[in-house]
Design a protein that fits this description.
Layout (H helix, E strand, L loop, with lengths): L6 H4 L5 H20 L5 H7 L10 H24 L2 H18 L5 H29 L2 H32 L3 H21 L14 H12 L2 H31 L6 H26 L1 H25 L4 H27 L6 H25 L6 H21 L13
Helix pairs in contact: 2-6, 2-7, 2-8, 4-5, 4-6, 4-14, 5-6, 5-8, 6-14, 7-11, 7-13, 9-14, 10-13, 10-14, 10-15, 11-12, 11-13, 12-13, 12-15
Length: about 400
């Protein structure tokens, strides 16, 4: 069993608010790396000779694949050597690649550095979740993760506008300079403000046998595995939307410079949902909130799919249905992650890496399929959302033995 830590000692004397803010900044690195460049994808493609507009999406996919695959490395490393050193190493690699991209001569070189940048960013995803699990468990972990996700979701609200502002006064290279500077700031805050949270008694050997045993523990836990699969397909819908957001909102609906404002609406809905979840999860539990949200997500996706097949959707109706779906996503993500991690506290680093790998790589591949299916309408996106909703519901039903809304954690 995991040896519990004193919350104040584990967070180096940080208040709860500052701890949540630091964890959110770490998690937000990935959102920033994706969303800030959405307004610049067209110029990146034009500057580096990318003819097919769908191929511009590879700037996002290369990063996500690098981040997803490297999580399998950072998890066992953080279980052996602690959380702080791997985290700072990942931030250094992430920032260095951002600066290198400023000087790339070709699109293939940009993709290569984006992949390696994602490798560095994997540390922020794995170690952040591990730190939260080191310090909190049960509904408390769900509450903390909800608040982290709430702040994390503010980044997609702001980042496209920042990217648009950069594009108005400079050009796409400056986007990566800003990303590098953000990495330096976050690394300084971690170095100065966070103690090691992995208790010495919970460190695991860094051997092939120990690593494989950790993977076995994760992959043979039914709840952890199935909730991870459910989260993976749900993330696929989010990545699918991010991949095609610029094409839909600018190409289909002609929003132009107003694209960041509408995109921010969807991210804002997820942030609001995460905040609501943090207020309600202690009372109602993770399953009640997330299962209801999953059913709502499926219903909104079904209505959206049917209407899109009937004819072109007006902008207002598209925004309404997408916003409803994104609100449900905000209730699903933190709870599903907390339920997947709950039984795995004794191998939190390895567990976070395996779960993060499956969620990121699985979600990226599904999102790429949805994004590449773009045909000038919102229909492929709507059908993609409905498909992942049905798959996620199937995984949850198997995990719960066919019964939804059954609480398993007591209120704090």
């Amino acid at each position: 069993m995991t040896k519990p830590l004193d919350h104040t000692a584990a967070t180096s004397g940080l208040t709860k608010v500052r701890f949540i803010a630091l964890m959110a900044m770490l998690m937000s690195i990935n959102a920033l790396s994706i969303d800030i460049m959405l307004p610049g994808l067209q110029e990146i493609g034009a500057s580096l000779g990318v003819a097919d507009e769908n191929h511009r999406q590879y700037v996002l996919s290369a990063y996500l694949i690098g981040m997803g695959s490297a999580q399998l490395f950072f998890g066992p490393v953080s279980d052996r050597f602690g959380r702080k050193a791997p985290l700072l190493g990942g931030l250094a690699l992430y920032g260095a690649c951002a600066l290198a991209i400023v000087f790339v001569p070709t699109f293939s070189a940009l993709l290569a550095f984006r992949f390696v940048q994602g490798v560095g960013a994997a540390a922020t995803r794995v170690v952040t979740v591990s730190i939260v699990r080191d310090v909190y468990g049960g509904r408390q972990m769900a509450e903390i993760m909800s608040l982290v996700m709430m702040v994390f979701m503010i980044v997609p609200v702001v980042a496209p506008s920042v990217g648009q502002l950069i594009m108005l006064f400079s050009e796409w290279h400056m986007i990566f300079v800003v990303i590098a500077l953000f990495a330096v700031v976050v690394a300084a805050l971690v170095a100065l403000g966070l103690r090691e949270t992995l208790a010495p008694d919970n460190r695991r050997a860094f051997t092939a046998t120990a690593i494989l045993d950790g993977f076995r523990i994760v992959l043979t836990n039914r709840l952890a595995l199935l909730y991870t699969l459910a989260t993976s397909v749900i993330f696929g819908s989010l990545f699918g939307f991010v991949n095609s957001a610029q094409q839909v909102l600018v190409g289909v609906y002609g929003l132009g410079i107003w694209f960041p404002a509408v995109f921010a609406t969807f991210a804002g809905m997820m942030a609001v949902a995460s905040f609501i979840n943090s207020r309600l999860v202690q009372r109602f539990g993770m399953r009640a909130l997330s299962h209801a949200a999953l059913l709502g997500f499926a219903l909104a996706s079904f209505v959206w799919s049917v209407l899109s097949l009937i004819g072109p959707l007006p902008l207002v109706l598209f925004v309404l249905l997408q916003a409803v779906a994104m609100f449900q996503f905000g209730l699903i993500a933190a709870n599903f992650n907390a339920m997947a991690m709950e039984p795995l506290g004794h191998v939190a680093g390895t567990a976070s890496s395996v779960l993060g790998f499956m969620q990121t790589v699985g979600g990226t591949l599904i999102g790429a399929l949805i994004g590449q299916a773009f045909d000038g309408t919102v229909t492929p996106l709507a059908i993609g959302f409905l498909t992942v909703a049905v798959l996620a519901l199937a995984f949850v039903l198997v995990a719960e033995g066919g019964r939804l809304f059954k609480p398993q954690n007591p209120a704090a």
